[in-house]
Every structure is written in C-alpha cells, then in structure tokens.
Amino acid sequence: MSLNRADIENIARLARLELTETEIPVYVDSLSRIFAFVGELDRAPTAGIAPMAHPLPGLAQRLRPDEVAESDHRELYQRNAPQVEAGLYVVPKVIE
Amino acid sequence: MSLPAAPAATVAELVRGLAAKRYSSVELTRAYLDRVAAAQPGLNAFITVTGEAALAAAARADEARAAGRGGPLTGVPLAHKDIFCTEGVLTTCGSKMLANFVSPYDATVVAGLRQAGTVMLGKLNMDEFAMGSSNETSFFGPVRNPWDTARVPGGSSGGSAAAVAARIAPAATATDTGGSIRQPAALCGVTGIKPTYGRVSRYGMIAFASSLDQGGLITVSAEDAALLLGPMSGFDPRDSTSVDSPVPDYTATLTDSLDGLTIGLVKEFFDDGLDADCGARIREAISVFEKQGARVREVSCPNLPLSVPTYYVVAPAECSSNLARFDGVRFGHRCESPKNLTDLYSRSRGEGFGAEVKRRIMTGTYVLSAGYYDAYYLKAQRVRQLISADFARAFSECDLLLGPTSPTPAFRIGDKCDDPITMYLNDIYTIGANLAGLPGMSLPCGFVGGLPVGLQLIGPHFSEARMLNAAHRYQMETDWHLQVPAAFA
Predict the structure, then answer these.
(1) What confidence tens digit (pLDDT) does each residue in A32-63 have?
(2) Do B104 and A27 touch (CB under 8 A)?
(3) pTM above 0.90, yes or no
(4) What ipTM is given for this predicted complex?
(5) For residue B65, what are the domain limits?
(6) Is the bond preceding residue B156 a cis peptide, omega within 30 degrees?
(7) Which chain A residue shows the shortest CA-CA distance from B388?
(8) Inter-chain contact B419–A56, Cβ cutoff 8 Å?
(9) A83 domain residue, yes or no
C-alpha cells in the first residue's frame, strides 16, 4: 500500500503535528513501507476470532468506588506549565 | 580509560557486604558515582545524575542500619530508567518534549524501591518515549555499548543495560513494550526480566502503549532480579490494570531443582533470520538446562511470525492516543509565539517530538482513523488473540519456552537508521510475549565475535518465580553473566 503527500498532510493534521517540508517525503516513504509490511496481516485466518480486549485472559478493567481519594495539588502541578495566570493555564485566544 | 574499582559484582554481594559492614552505603554510593562520572563521556548512559541526593539517601540508609532498622536492600545503589517519574527530579523520557519536566510525584516502582531502602544514583538514557531498539532516538544522544562503543546497546532501555554491563550501576529499572528490557539486556550481556502484564504498577511510568507496557529490571544476575522484583511488584489501586494477586518471595525458590521441568523450543524462533553463531550459543545453553534434569521438546506457535506487523498496528495506535496529552498547555515543550490554539498544539508537538515518535503517532492516527479502524486495528487485535492462543497451547505441553532474544549481536550505530522495518525486526523474538502479556527474561549465554548473545525464556502468566529459578540454576553452571567488558573491569 502506498501513501501520497496529501495522505501524510491529512494524517499530520489529524495528529496535530506540524511537519517541515523536508519531513513530508520521508514520512510518505516510511509510512508506505510500514503499511505494506503491516499488510501481511491480511493472510491471517481470523474468521470467527474475537479481537483481544485485555492481555490477561478473563480479566476486565477494574472499577473503583466513586469517592474522593486525592487532594488538590494544582499549584504543584502548575509549576511545570509553560504559562499560568491566577491558577489558570494560558493559551492563545480561542473566541474572537 | 581507567575506572575506580566496582565494589562488588552483584547486588547479592552488596547485600552481604552491607550486612557484614564491609562498607557503608555512603562509601558504596560514592564509588558508583565515581564510576558513573568516569564512564559517562564514553557511554552516555545517564541523562541525570543525582549525586548529592544519592549521598544524602545513602547517609540515611547507613543511619537506619546503625539503628537496627531497614531491610536487606537498605543502602544498595541503583538507577532508574528516565521513563519513571521521580519527585523533584528531571524526568525526560528521552524527549525534547519533556526536557524541562520536573515530576511532581514518584512512580509506584520508584516509591517501592525507595521504601525498600535502595539509593537512586540518577536517571538513565533511553529511546525517546521508549520507541526504538537501539537507543539512537534519544534527544540526549545515543548510548554506546560497553562491549564496543561503536555499537548500539539495544533499546529502548539502552541506558539501563549499558550502565549495568559497565558496572556503573549495580542494577537498573527498565520497561518493555516490545522487547525493550530483553533486547538491550541481550546486546549488553546482562540479565533482564519483563514481568507479567499487571504484575508491576504502571503508575508514574510514562505511557507508550498501555496494553503492552510493563516495568521490570536489568541486573547482573537472576538472583539480583529476584531480590529487587518483590519490592517493585504488587497491587496498586492507582493502576487500573494492576493485578491483585500475592507477590511470592522470588528468592525462596531460586535454587529449586529443574528435574522434570519441560522446556519448549519454539520452532518459529529458530528461523532463517537467526544468526547461525547466535543459534549455536543458544543450543549450547539448552544442553546446560538438560544436564540439570530439564526435558526439552519442540513446540510450534504458527502465528508468531505475524507478531511484528501486529505490534506495529497495536502499539502505534495506543501511542497516538497516549501521546495526545502532550499539547504544550499543561507541561512539556511549548512553541514560541503561537498564532492560535491549533498552531500551539501542532507546532509544540512538531518541535517537541523526534522523528521516530512522530512516525509512530502518525501510523497510529491512520490505523484508528475513520474507515481504517476495522481493517487495521481490529484485524491486529484478532491476530493478537491467535498469537496468545498459540502460547496457551504451547504452555499446555511445557513449563517454559526458550529461544534467542535477538536475531543478531549488537549492530553498529547508524547501521539500521534508514529503514524503520529493518529496525522493527530486531524485536521479532520478543514482541510475542508483550502481545500475550507473558513474562520473559533474557540471560547472557556466550559471545559471538566478542559481543554478548542473549537467550530468552518466556513463561506462563505469573510464572516469574519459576523463570527466575531456571535462570538462576543456569547461572550457577555458567559465568557468562559475570563477564565485564575490559574497559570497565
């Protein structure tokens, strides 16, 4: 399977990744090769086989009671933020 | 290069030495920090060295021992892969994206090993976000293999493997999503264990592919792994896939007899891709197990050759979802003067992620996108079921599986960078265990052209004790795991 420039630009847009002009042809080539390689899966006999949902047989996602278990660490966590103001994360204006 | 002497060969020896007061933890820690400093320019195994904090923790360990408190591991130095969050310490995951991230909390693994008394020397280099098999994708530069510094140490836990191989850290934590503990352990001539999925908490372990990621260890010996695995294992309410089952004392059964143990040789592991000399080392190792009473038989896992293409759908899919959190808003890299919110996201991510991480995010985005989900993702999850069933059938006939860890010894830095598929095929023997959630180990079993070769054991779910037992018995009869590269002896 072969991807073209428009495919890569569309995938990058969906993934919110800005690519440079030099990166685009590299990914056209390498993703085409990856999808050709992954195409081997077509020959696997999977009729009637359920998709695997958990690596351990018989185990499902555990739920916990809906109780407060954590305290507020906002200030601590915001120390890693690029820009905060009055306890809020600052981003470019969204609504004009 | 001349390094100050390593205080001991193994963690087990350090445990005895500390108990017998042959040295203090401060002395030990200083000795390893000196070795780290001397080896760092050549190996680049560490991203961050926490010397002052290590000496302070060692002093506390010595006080605890003097007061009759603490356990066997109190005062033993080790290092953590930089994928594990460490409170107040830079935690980069090998990425520019997190080059400024100081974790506000500890991973459960880090907390568990600290509570057991271990002393952290620092944070180890790795492939960016654990995506790589050669440690060449790290934003902080490649790690070099102590056996030949022109060669890769393997990846993604390349820093962990190189540090233990060079004896600049007595032991190291590591993680394994498709072979990232076992493959570098094999390429660097050290012991690696990837436990059963769910055995070790993933809390605070930066996520790559959540249904495959598992924390573990790189150590000199299986005995060392048995000593350290207990404190990092067990149920953790903070990880929703953590399994609530008791953790056995892994050291208690290390020397059990191998009489009656049935070892399966997976036919598909001995394929044309396996280097002939590496194959010969594996066969020599098999005879060591046989001499100890193990029975060996061939088994087949016919769907196993599909494990690499399966993985390269499932892992990128989960990666694209997990790495969506890096948006330049709450933490991590942010681009300069964003024009609008979309520009902030796209440029921060485009600048913050390296080439391989972007490749996997895009692969995953594509396989999960409308119209392709059934053809790729669901198909891969069905094949994953087939591969798991192959293993389950094999374990109805034998106790452990044995094969090579990696198709070749360590390759040269730069050799496999041009084609992602060539690089991905390094993990052809290790990925199956991740897809099925099984525990696996790699053990040093000889050399080819002066480079170490690893043999792999794979066990049924939660068979870590039996696997460590078999590995330890093998290491009682061999000394491959005690070989140290000349420059670091």
Answers:
(1) 999 999 999 999 999 999 999 888 887 777 88
(2) no
(3) yes
(4) 0.96
(5) 11-258+441-488
(6) yes
(7) A55
(8) no
(9) no
